[in-house]
């Protein structure tokens, strides 16, 4: 029996930093959105132990992989000798600001909660996710949400209207910690109107969503990698309605009316060695 699950990437439609916390993390306020782009995980029950194989991405295959760490946390809770073999098919660009590792960790927690019959309630799963990374709780929730604290305080928002997205990932990755450090040494940039973004989402007004795209970490990442500014400019020239760096970057997303328009913009984008992907926003159907 093989159980297959999708782990969806995220973008940040807004990202504000409200201050630095005593634990060294930053207090954020960010409107987060799941997107269709996903990794695929395959779980096959074993007699005992955890094994992980990775295909298609430059990520660790051993104990440093967030999937492996998530599986060990769940195995402790299973209270029994449990085993699982996991195959991770990587498709989300790595160290990209798209929360790929967090999405994989969240998918592993949810899947093993079912497969091993642990029946951990959602709030306990969220607390466990927080131990693995600030973006993991959002990846467990999915859809459209406002995140606060270090990312773990979540409020579900009405679903964002379906929008096309063009993702442009430069050939380099960035470390999230180094971006927050660069921000601390020079905190600047356009502060997002978080309330205006939430209103625009509620009114399903794509033009207004586009007008309110803002991320205070963008300038910090651009100060280390000025080519990101060029990507933004070229994406706009190729026809995106609005553009923003996602999370700590370096991926830039361009918003379009729908997936078809995203494909047309991706075709027109003058590629300078970046990975260019056309995708769209994703909102799970809630009962
Ligand atoms: C940039 C975002 O992706 C926006 O959603 C998140 O804030 C980062 O989430 P993440 O990659 O899951 O981050 P973590 O793995 O928890 O932390 C990586 C590093 O980023 C910094 N970090 C992260 C989150 C946060 N609220 N403040 C921070 O200062 C810390 O130096 C931390 O050591
Ligand atoms: N399953 C995984 N997928 C991707 N990266 C992983 C995974 N497990 C561990 N990592 C490590 O985590 C680091 C960050 O990778 P990830 O792709 O999650 O970054 P990111 O998209 O910038 O995340 P975020 O947007 O949450 O800051 C990588 O350098 C990688 O070595």
TrEMBL record:
<feature type="domain" description="GHMP kinase N-terminal">
    <location>
        <begin position="65"/>
        <end position="143"/>
    </location>
</feature>
<dbReference type="GO" id="GO:0050515">
    <property type="term" value="F:4-(cytidine 5'-diphospho)-2-C-methyl-D-erythritol kinase activity"/>
</dbReference>
<protein>
    <recommendedName>
        <fullName>4-diphosphocytidyl-2-C-methyl-D-erythritol kinase</fullName>
        <ecNumber>2.7.1.148</ecNumber>
    </recommendedName>
</protein>
<dbReference type="GO" id="GO:0016114">
    <property type="term" value="P:terpenoid biosynthetic process"/>
</dbReference>
<keyword id="KW-0414">Isoprene biosynthesis</keyword>
<feature type="domain" description="GHMP kinase C-terminal">
    <location>
        <begin position="197"/>
        <end position="272"/>
    </location>
</feature>
<dbReference type="InterPro" id="IPR020568">
    <property type="entry name" value="Ribosomal_Su5_D2-typ_SF"/>
</dbReference>
<keyword id="KW-0547">Nucleotide-binding</keyword>
<dbReference type="InterPro" id="IPR006204">
    <property type="entry name" value="GHMP_kinase_N_dom"/>
</dbReference>
<dbReference type="InterPro" id="IPR004424">
    <property type="entry name" value="IspE"/>
</dbReference>
<dbReference type="InterPro" id="IPR036554">
    <property type="entry name" value="GHMP_kinase_C_sf"/>
</dbReference>
<keyword id="KW-0418">Kinase</keyword>
<dbReference type="Pfam" id="PF00288">
    <property type="entry name" value="GHMP_kinases_N"/>
</dbReference>
<dbReference type="InterPro" id="IPR013750">
    <property type="entry name" value="GHMP_kinase_C_dom"/>
</dbReference>
<comment type="function">
    <text>Catalyzes the phosphorylation of the position 2 hydroxy group of 4-diphosphocytidyl-2C-methyl-D-erythritol.</text>
</comment>
<feature type="active site">
    <location>
        <position position="135"/>
    </location>
</feature>
<comment type="similarity">
    <text>Belongs to the GHMP kinase family. IspE subfamily.</text>
</comment>
<dbReference type="GO" id="GO:0005524">
    <property type="term" value="F:ATP binding"/>
</dbReference>
<keyword id="KW-0808">Transferase</keyword>
<dbReference type="Pfam" id="PF08544">
    <property type="entry name" value="GHMP_kinases_C"/>
</dbReference>
<feature type="active site">
    <location>
        <position position="10"/>
    </location>
</feature>
<dbReference type="GO" id="GO:0019288">
    <property type="term" value="P:isopentenyl diphosphate biosynthetic process, methylerythritol 4-phosphate pathway"/>
</dbReference>
<feature type="binding site">
    <location>
        <begin position="93"/>
        <end position="103"/>
    </location>
    <ligand>
        <name>ATP</name>
    </ligand>
</feature>
<dbReference type="InterPro" id="IPR014721">
    <property type="entry name" value="Ribsml_uS5_D2-typ_fold_subgr"/>
</dbReference>
<comment type="pathway">
    <text>Isoprenoid biosynthesis; isopentenyl diphosphate biosynthesis via DXP pathway; isopentenyl diphosphate from 1-deoxy-D-xylulose 5-phosphate: step 3/6.</text>
</comment>
<keyword id="KW-0067">ATP-binding</keyword>
């Amino acid at each position: 029996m093989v159980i297959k699950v999708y782990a969806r990437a995220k973008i940040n439609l807004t990202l504000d930093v409200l201050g630095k916390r005593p634990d060294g993390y930053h207090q954020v306020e960010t409107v987060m959105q799941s997107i269709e782009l996903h990794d695929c995980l395959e779980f096959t029950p074993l007699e005992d132990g955890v094994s992980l194989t990775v295909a298609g991405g430059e990520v660790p295959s051993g104990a440093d992989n967030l999937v492996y760490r998530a599986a060990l946390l769940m195995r402790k809770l299973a209270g029994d000798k449990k085993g699982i073999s996991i195959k991770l098919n990587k498709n989300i660009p790595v160290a990209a600001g798209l929360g790929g590792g967090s999405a994989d960790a969240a998918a592993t927690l949810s899947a093993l909660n079912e497969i091993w019959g642990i029946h951990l309630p959602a709030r306990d799963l969220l607390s466990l996710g927080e131990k693995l990374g600030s973006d993991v709780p959002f990846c467990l929730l999915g859809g459209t949400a406002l995140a606060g604290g270090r990312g773990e305080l979540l409020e579900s928002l009405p679903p964002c209207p379906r929008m096309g997205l063009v993702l442009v990932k430069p050939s380099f990755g960035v470390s999230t910690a180094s971006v927050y450090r660069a921000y601390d040494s020079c905190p600047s940039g356009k502060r997002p109107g978080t309330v205006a973004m939430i209103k625009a989402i509620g009114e399903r007004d794509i033009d207004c969503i586009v007008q309110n795209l803002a991320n205070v970490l963008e300038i910090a990442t651009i100060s280390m990698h000025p080519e990101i500014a060029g990507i933004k400019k070229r994406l706009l020239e190729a026809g995106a309605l609005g553009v923003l760096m996602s999370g700590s970057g370096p991926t830039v997303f361009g918003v379009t009316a729908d997936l078809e328009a995203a494909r047309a913009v991706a075709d027109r984008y003058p590629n300078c060695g970046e990975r260019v992907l056309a995708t769209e926003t994703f909102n799970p159907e809630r009962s």
